[in-house]
Structures are given as structure tokens and as C-alpha cells.
Amino acid sequence: MTGALRPIFFVLLIFACYNSSYADDVNYATSAIPVALLKNANAVIRNAHLQIRIVSAHEIHVIHKYAVTVLNEKGAKYGIITQLKNKIADINYIEGSLYDKDGNEIQKLKKKDIKINNPYGQDMIDDIHYKTYDFGYGSFPYTCEYEIEIILNSSFDLPDWQPQNNFDCSVASSDLEVEYPLDFLLHYRIFHMETKPSMELADDVNKFTCSVSNLAARKRPDDFAPTDNYYLPAIIMSADKFELLDEKGSMATWQDLGKFVYKLNVNRDELPDAVKKIVHQLTDTCSNSLGKINLLYGYLKKNTRYVSIQLGIGGWQTFDAKFVSEKGYGDCKALSNYMKALLKEAGITSFQAWVYGGQENEHQMITDFPNNAFNHSILCIPLMADTIWVECTSKSLPAGYLSSFTDNRYALLLTPDGGFPVRTPVNKIEDNLLTRRAEIQVNEKDEMTGDIDLTYRGNFWENEHGLVINEPKSDVDNYLNSKFKLGSYSISNYKISNDLSGSIPSVYETIAIKGEGNISRNTQHMFLSPGIFNFHIAAPSSYELRKEPFQIHRSYQVTDTITYRLTGNYIMDEYKGGNFELPFAAYHYQVILENNNTLKIAIFYSQKDGIYPPEQFADYIRLYKQINTDFNNKFVFRKKD
């Protein structure tokens, strides 16, 4: 689903450390590394330097020098270099040396061994390739020393400085140096750094410098860490005025950047006459805009496919609607533009929106810092009563549903008046539903037969539909025969339907099962493990008192109803399940034995997204423990006289 709006320049040194430096007299012996930098580390940046020399808006020289000590096999990726090359970023040279654990140089980088590849596969048309190099040394620890010069002919996307962009990589020292002309206005934003950059005027240029040292490796934030653009130190930069190939623009405001992008793509939505005719055949008899949107979105999905196109300025300028119509494919921008053109012919106005898609935090749009923070394009359709968002690269989503790939974040709406930050939709609790109902009959041999009905809606649908819709029957059978917590069982029959009729998609499953193994006995008692459904909420990484706020990232609701109809009459030992009403979640577990032979279990859980104070995390831990207890308990029965 990822689109083509990715940055024009990045150096991915696998550990994503964009900077580096080394000195000729440095001691690369592993024994010289301070003990504090070895703790929790798989690699150590010994010294690093990033120099960015901005000659003009269309000429930028970037020199990276760094040395990294690879401590073990998990850190081996840090010794590999991968560098992008395209029409905007040219690699002038790559040099490197390898040192053993005692700091002795044992090998020079061999240019003939630098590999050239395109990692994006057959669904991408581009003029991009990557140069990669790996010493392939297997005797740990060792140190790799690299120097790279890249020449950029665009200031649209300036490099970031991330001296420590991975949690298991410590840093002995790293520094940044940026030189730029007096008439070049540089914007920057700092994340998680106590050291402040210094500014000076030297030799008729502005000089911007910053350094860090002794950054220890640390554990990755847990699932409850509040979302942040960068969890580790970083400085991001952007140019007030930029050039992108032959185009000039401004990034002084989001509105300015939006004007540049809109102008770059204006008048590229002209449809062929044959397609115009199809649009009217589909929509002229439809009386409402939402119906027209659904009809044209269905046409788009049926007649196009996603291919990422990265030719020249293609990362930012769309291929026109006639191209997509003729070829039957396009990247995220081209497909969004094509859908925009179809809607325009039907009399419906829409706007493309740039967004950063995915779960990663880096490059998320910051509303008060204009920069190139996008990798994807979607479509926004404002109507009188509502706003419809459309993911034009998807074959499975309904109109109006973006999925967790692009929902609940800021996007840049591209209009004739410029760009405007807008928030993409987020599902409410009632949109993300998992409902499960089981009716189980237990015979005198403790064999079970029953029917199970399940509904997956919203975010739950996203996970489930990929497993059961349009998949080989054998794969679906294998999945269904392993999803329930029964000792042993088989699926005797099932029916699955995919409902895309509304803006929130759902999957419905009706499953007939036969099984055994959840019941055991002794001379006086019957023991029943009633939980046939798995239930997972995010597990605390630690039960210690939390010092920082925690975040619930998704709202959702789960409702389970399980009924066991037993053969015979029984008395059951009392069981009291959990009962919680918390600011961030509610949970209720109820057990009833009716008529001495019908066991009914009702479970309700809901959680509300948000950031909560650290002192409430103790309640979350209690909730988590209780849910695990309830879902793994055994009920004790005695036969009724």
C-alpha cells in the first residue's frame, strides 16, 4: 500500500545513523570502549561526523564519516552500508576500512564488491538504485570505518541528523556541522537533546553545529509509550526556499508547500472520452454523491492496480489520468489523481492529501514545522454532511475507511489555495468491535459439538479478512482449525461473508465444530476449562511503578457469550470474575449456572484511546492479571443428587 512520496535523500546505514566521523589516531580497540556504553548495546558508534555544505538551493554536499564497533551477531547489520542513488542524490565516493577487536586494520573496502540493487521488487518502476557494502566479517567484535560523500541537486529534502537512531546502539561521540549561504534560510527542530546547537558567522557563511557524547544504549519503549516523532535524539531540517530539479518552491508554511505540490500536479486529471462516457453510464442515474463515490471507487479497484513509479520527479508529480487509464496501473498519487478525475467528471470535488503511512513514528507530519514528511497519497472528498476518505491503492477497503495504515494522524490537504494540515479519521469504540458467541453441547462422553458466530469490525476486520477472504480454502481450513482453545477439535462446516456495504467493514463467520479435551474428571468432580476464545490486551513489559504517562493507542470493544449445555445435573463452585470500571477501560466477567445444566459466561471489555497518568498504570496491571486469570480458569462441578 505504501506510495511513492518518499524522501529524495536518505543514508540508511541499517542502524539509520546519518552521521559519523573518525580521526586518524583514534584507538579502535574494543577494550577502549567505556563499560557504560557496552550495556544493552549490540553496536557502538565510536565517533561520527555529518557535514552538510549547502552551496545553493540546488547544490548540497554531504559527507558522512563514522566508525561503528559491531559487538555481536545482532549488531552485524550496523556494519553494513546501504546508500540511495537517483537523479537527485549522486554518490561521489564510498571508502571504508575494517579493524579487528584490537583496533588493527585488516581490510580496505573494495569498490568492486559494492553491490547495486533495487530492493522494491517488481511493483516499482524507478530510476533509483542502492549501493550496498558488507565486509562480511564474522569474528566479533570488529569495527567498520566508512566515509561517504553524496551530492544533492535539490534542497527539497535535507538530511536529518539522528546520532542514535536505534536503541541497541550506543554513541561515544557524534557531531553535526551545517554550512549555508547568508541568504539561505534554514529551519530546524530538535528532539530529545539537552545540548543546544551553536550558530556562528564564518567566512561569509552561516555555520550550524551540534554534538553529543556518551549516549548509552537503552531498552526500546514499550507498547504504552506515548507516540512521538523521534524517541531518541534528532535534529530535522528544512529549507525556507527550495529547488526540486527544475522546479522552485517555498516551505516557509504548509500552505506554501501545498501550493507548490498542487501546481506541480495541476491539470493532470483529464480523462479519455471513453472513460468519461463510462463515468456517466455508472453515475447519471444515481441520485446521491455517496452512491456515485462507491460506484466509481469500485470501477477504480476493478480496472487499476498499484505500481510505485519513481522516475525523475515522479516521487512528487503524478502521472496523468490518461496514463493510468491506458496502462491500468499507477502509484498512490496517480491512482488518487485518477479517482479525483473520475469524481470530477461526475460533478464531485475532491482533493489529494499527502500523509506518512505506516506505524513508524519517524517523519510523521508536525503541524508547526513544514518539511517533507510524507510517503503516501490518499483522497479526501468533502460532502455537505460528511467527509469521505478513500485509499486508492487498496483492493479491499470500502470508500470512507482508511485502515490503521493512514488513520488518526495529520495529513497535508492539497487545494488550489495551498496546503492545510487536516486530521485523518480515527475509529470510535463502536467501530472496532469483536463479537463472539458460542453454543456448545456436551454429551455423556464429554464430547462437544457446537456453533460459533463471530463478527470482526473495523480494526478487527483488518486483521481477520486477510486470513479468511479470497484465500485458498486449505489455508482458511488450517486457520479455522487452530483458532479456538479446545483440546482437540475439527471444523465440520463454516460460512464466511465480507461486508463492505458501509464505511466500516465487517467479516462474519459461522462455524460448526466438533471437539473434546476441555473436560476432565475424578470420582467426585468434573473440571471444565470454559474459555474457547483467545483474548489479548497489551502485556505490561514490567510490573514496576511507572514514572511516565502511558498511552492506549486504539479504542475497541469485545463481547463474548459462551453457553455450555451439559448432560446431567450439576452444582458448581462459585466463581467471581473481574469487574472493572476505569478511566481507560471497562471489564466485566459474569458466570451463571441455570437449571443445573446450562453454564453461561458473559464477558465484556472496552478500552478508550488516550494518554493517562502513570499512577493509573497499576490499575492496568490489575486488569491485565484478572483477564488472564478469567480466561484461563477451570470451573469445578459436582453431580447434583
- Number of beta strands: 39
Count the DSSP helices.
9
Task: State the end-to-end distance.
Answer: 63 Å
Give the second-level CATH assignment, the architecture of the largest domain: Sandwich
Would you tell me which CATH topology of the largest domain applies?
Answer: Immunoglobulin-like
Keywords:
641 residues, mainly beta, 8-stranded mixed sheet, C8orf32 fold, Immunoglobulin-like, 3 domains, 9 helices, disordered N terminus, Jelly Rolls
Question: What does this protein look like?
Answer:
The structure is a single chain. The protein has three domains: 11-248, Immunoglobulin-like; 253-423, Roll (C8orf32 fold); 430-639, Jelly Rolls (Sandwich). The protein is built from nine helices and 39 strands. The longest helix has 15 residues, at 289-303. It is mostly beta strands. Helix 4 crosses helix 6 (332-345).
Spell out the blueprint of helices and strands:
Layout lengths: L10 E2 L22 H4 L4 E14 L2 E12 L10 E5 L3 E11 L5 E4 L6 E3 L6 E3 L2 E5 L8 E11 L16 E13 L4 E6 L6 E5 L2 E11 L18 E6 L1 E4 L2 E4 L3 H12 L7 H11 L5 H15 L1 E2 L1 E3 L10 H7 L1 E2 L1 H14 L5 E5 L20 E7 L4 E4 L19 E6 L2 E6 L9 E10 L5 E10 L1 H10 L4 H8 L7 E12 L6 E11 L2 E3 L3 E4 L21 E3 L3 E10 L4 E3 L6 E3 L3 E10 L3 E10 L2 E3 L4 H15 L3 E5 L2
Parallel strand pairs: 2-11, 8-19, 18-20, 26-33
Antiparallel strand pairs: 1-4, 2-3, 3-10, 4-9, 5-6, 5-10, 7-9, 11-14, 12-15, 13-14, 16-17, 21-22, 21-24, 22-23, 24-25, 26-27, 27-29, 28-29, 30-31, 31-39, 32-38, 33-37, 34-39, 35-36, 36-37
Helix pairs in contact: 4-6, 5-6
